Amino acid sequence: MAAVADAAGVSMQTVSRVARGFDNVSPDTRDRVQRAMDDLGYRPNRAARALRSGRFRTIGVIMFTLASFGNMRTLEAISAAAAAADFTITLLPMASRTGEGVRTALSRLHEQAVDGVVIVIESHIIDTAEVVLPSGVPLVVVDSTGTTDRPSIDIDQAEGARLATQHLLDLGHETVWHVAGPSASYSAERRLSAWRETLERAGRAVPPVFPGGWSTADGHRAGLEIAARPEITAVFAVNDQTALGVLRAAHEAGRAVPESLSVVGFDDFPESESFWPPLTTVHQSFDEVGRRAVATLLAQIEGTAVRTSTDLVPVSLVERASTAPPPRA
């Protein structure tokens, strides 16, 4: 800093004001200081700033897996929103999706000197007595239950499932079958519950659920049975990858989609419009989840009161070519 001040012909205090983005410096002086910084390779030291301010400008992110599309997009969105606010992130994957896993991750993050924590975990763990979230630590929960007393952000999973199921009913299908996700996933559970409630509200039969997971292999396994049963004309799959597995099984069995079988997914990941046929699906905005999670966390860090109820991000149905009215008898 002293070298920059000497090169720019200003005081060290002026260099500090420029480095911290204060606006009480004339444009000419700011340009001169910035050129000196560039010439000398000066970069403000975050550690030194943290010692002075008590802030580390770092957000900790606890996440169980990076394998799923949703988690990767959520992490990307959180990273982008944090960077826009001049924060970095420290990622700490959990060894297991258990209460002990969450407690261990929180303990390790305390050692990393973070200003707040975002927990991304599609599970009931946060609801249980196994996990006591630390008081006094700014924290936001993403993709879990809304029963915690800490702020939470989530996609409107139930509305997405209602839109998917009602779309198929509106096309004229007598009922809609469901390929479910993992039983431990709260997102999958909400989609299943809303599918069932939509059918019940419409006075339609609620068929047995095809158990599954998040993968294409899970969808293909269920799809083989679906394709062999001509009475099944409409399927709501828990996500796009599962829907892709159903489509593959239908093609292998000679079931034409959508002429003989309609399929709807959930996610709207980029490749879904390139499926054959292009997939009707529920779009969820992971970018908005990241923005809201970081904004809520930063408000806590700044001492602003935030609501503790779940902030639901809206969804929308994207109609493509994988759905149509049922075949005529």
UniProtKB/TrEMBL annotation:
InterPro entries: HTH_LacI, LacI/GalR-like_sensor, Lambda_DNA-bd_dom_sf, Peripla_BP_I
CDD domains for the chain: HTH_LacI, PBP1_LacI
GO molecular function: DNA binding
Pfam families, per database record: LacI, Peripla_BP_3
Record domain HTH lacI-type: where: 1-53
TM stretches of this protein: none
Keywords recorded for this protein, A-Z: DNA-binding, Transcription, Transcription regulation
Coiled-coil regions listed in the entry: none
SMART domains tied to this protein: HTH_LACI
Matches recorded under PANTHER family: LACI-RELATED TRANSCRIPTIONAL REPRESSOR (PTHR30146), LACTOSE OPERON REPRESSOR (PTHR30146:SF153)
Protein name (record): LacI family DNA-binding transcriptional regulator
Species assigned in the record: Curtobacterium subtropicum
Organism taxonomic ancestry: Bacteria, Bacillati, Actinomycetota, Actinomycetes, Micrococcales
